[in-house]
Amino acid sequence: MNELPILSILILLPLVGIFFMTLIRNNNDQSSNNLKHTALWISFLNFLISLYLLFSFNQQDADFQFEERYFWIEYGISYHLGVDGISILFIVLTTMLVPICILASYDSIKFSVKEYLIAFLALETFMIGVFCSLDLVLFYLFFEGGLIPMFLIIGIWGGERRVYSTFKFFLYTLAGSVFMLLAIIYIFITAGTTDVSYLLDYNFTRNEQIVLWLAFFASFMVKIPMWPFHTWLPDAHVEAPTAGSVILAGVLLKMAGYGFIRFSIGFFPEASELFAPLIFTLSIVAIIVTSLIALVQEDMKKLIAYSSVAHMGFVTLGIFTFTVQGIEGSIIQMISHGIVSAALFLCVGVVYDRLHTREISRYGGLVSKMPMYAFTFMIFILASLGLPGTSGFVGEFLVLISIFSINTYFAVFATTGVVLAATYSLWLYRRMIFGALIKDDLSEMLDLTRREIIIFVPLITLTIFIGIYPKPVIDIIEPSAKKIVNQVNGKLN
Amino acid sequence: MENILHIIPEIFIFCSALILLILGLFIKNIKLINNLAILSLLIAVALVINQPYQSIYLNSYVIDEFSSLFKIMIFIGSIVTLVMFVSSREDLHINLYEYPILILFSTLGMMVMVSANDLLAMFIGLELQSLSLYVLAALNRNSLLSSEAGIKYFILGALSSGLLLFGISYIYGFSGNTNFNLIAVNYNSESLGLLIGIVFVLAGLAFKVSAVPFHMWTPDVYQGAPTPITAFFALAPKIAAMGLLVRFLFNSFGELYLDWQQIIFFISIASMMLAAFAAIAQTNIKRLMAYSSIGHIGYALIGVACVSSEGLRSLLIYLMIYLFMNISVFTVILSLKRNDAYFENISDLSGMYKNHPFTTILVALMMFSLAGIPPLAGFFGKFYIFVAALESNMVFLAVVGIIASVISAFYYLRIVKIMYFDEPKEEFDGLNIRSLQVLFYPSSFLVILFFIYPAPIIQLSEYAIKSFY
Residue B427, exposed/middle/buried by CB under 10 A (0-12, 13-18, 19+)? Predict the structure, then answer.
């Protein structure tokens, strides 16, 4: 037990930042710079606090740490926070990506800067809350609350078809989630509490499990997203501002993966086992179909969005193998995808800021004008296709091992996804970076600025570090992953 | 004399209404009369809080936790309406001293409604309330829409009163009593006549709470009536009628719940679904709020349909949250003024956030709250409704409820979209008047910050349902 309520501080600090920012009047360039700096420093401070959390985290302990519990609504629904090896990395990922996003928006957001930054900090609060909360109602609160700032971010600062995309994003996610709300209420009524640590030991009957699992599944499959409910994601990505895409791919999708591990498997192991083939089938369809769709995309962001769906397919595959490797693999895959896809969207943002188009055919031969950019982009493209030595490899490899141990056919199909990923990624890279520089407006392109280098350096470092030496990450995840697997197997037998 | 002291708040409101009526003949200062009316309502709040709980007049009039909470909600609604009157009376052509007095009489009627434990007391309260409302709806005599609203409301209201009386006569005929508790003891549960009576009374009451299929008057009256009065329609009478409905059903026919539960079940589903679809096509914000209120009444009725203590508790939580959300939305509608003209079209809100950033974000959050998105108060209202529904095994009702809430999210989002994503128009006067700020900021912050410590409102509603369970 830690005396400092560090998780609450993480959640509340962005809100404090928002409070101060509402006091700053935004009427000229100077004040809008002040606003940007305030938001950046607040989120950076939050990142430092989360690092402190990471380093004071006891890696041997598989239980929840830094727990906080206060009376909130009524008996059974409390303000209960805590982290374990599964959630802590997501918190650090979130706090790391938010300052990067704010930094990336320094020049690209031209109007209503104050509202934009406030929306981002509010989003950070909700995202951290999702990974910290150990109470289902609290979880739902954060999970759904994040829709509000994201709706505004896409809708106000997005591209041409932003209204359509943001409505689609909001209504799809909401429609999925309300069923989870009913399931949470049902759990509250039958078990008498929504406390996660209590419910992990609670045994639901088989029929209850099936219905509840489906309700949670409805929410998470839309959010993660799984085929065939993935169509909101490309739309949202294409229209969102760069930083919005980064957060969407980097963190929001992971909420659902986290939910699968924590709730679907943890609470309903029998139902999870029953539905595992369904998940495998959907995941493999997603991996293959969306990879093929990605091949024919003309829009860079759409291509990366479809590749996200394919990557999340590996995540769901790994989770439902109920093996330690599978769960470790999917968490690492999520962390890695959080870094890599975020970086890819930032890479798109870099050229978009210069040329204001995302059409792949408008580019070509960038390497001669933007060597540093070409190098950065290459690292992330390679990480995205899972090259050994990058973080993408570790996750995919663990997931494929685990799925091999379950079913060879599934594994064979899943592996084709890796080949397809290489195809569309490398082809994207080839079309954009290599070739002759024949288009006139490209010759004016400038290489990465100092601000952009600052953004990319930590992401490159992490990608390669996790790829070469994943042990520290695995050490954090392993005890909790083992605990979950033991728990599930204990309940199943 | 001692008998009279039991109903001191009612007497006080009645006397102050009469005194103000006489004063109004001599004093031309309408603002003063309005302020006196507000003052008397505030005093009445204090009187209600200090009233001892008892049932009086041969148990035909009950003062308990339930009625007190409802009375306070009604007072809040009335006070809000009177405060709105201050800023808008000139421009809306409702600068008449009858306005505060009619509100007081209507409030008195509602007080009687929520305390009534007898068919006759119930009818008297209902009629006193309705008669004042008919006049209020038509108060702007120069406006065709307002007169139309008044006439429409009057004709349909008279019809519903007729239905109600018809039902009352059946209930009296088949049970031999008008007192709710005595009806409960004396009726013959086999008799079809009693059932007809219940159906007719429910039809009359459904009209008052504007539940589908008796909702037709709502959009027209909401649109036609001057905005402060529309706010009054949304705030007080519905809450009062809901209180009456609960007491009528639970006290006299608590045992027969299997019969009326299906009716509530149906009107609840019909209200939620119809409102969710019909509101999508609206262009006038007051009409939209009318459909929104129909939908919210549908949700609140789930709480009644559960016939359980959780159900009633959730109903009360829902109504309280509904009250505060509506206060802030209607205040904003009243602030959409430019060059002394009011704007009511949704398209007039376009790009509002450029000129009024702070107000707009609060309005947007109110819309999200009305749609039931966490962490705002509206979510907790729905949450408790669904808890009650699932606890009573009404899964179907809960599922329809959440589907309707997703559909209705669309039209609330549309308002957010228009305010944020569309091209800005000219600046409005906005919330520059003290009387509007006083209403808007507290109610909005209450809705937004509700999640930090929701326990008081939940405990308050648990306290209020002691009268039944």
Answer: exposed
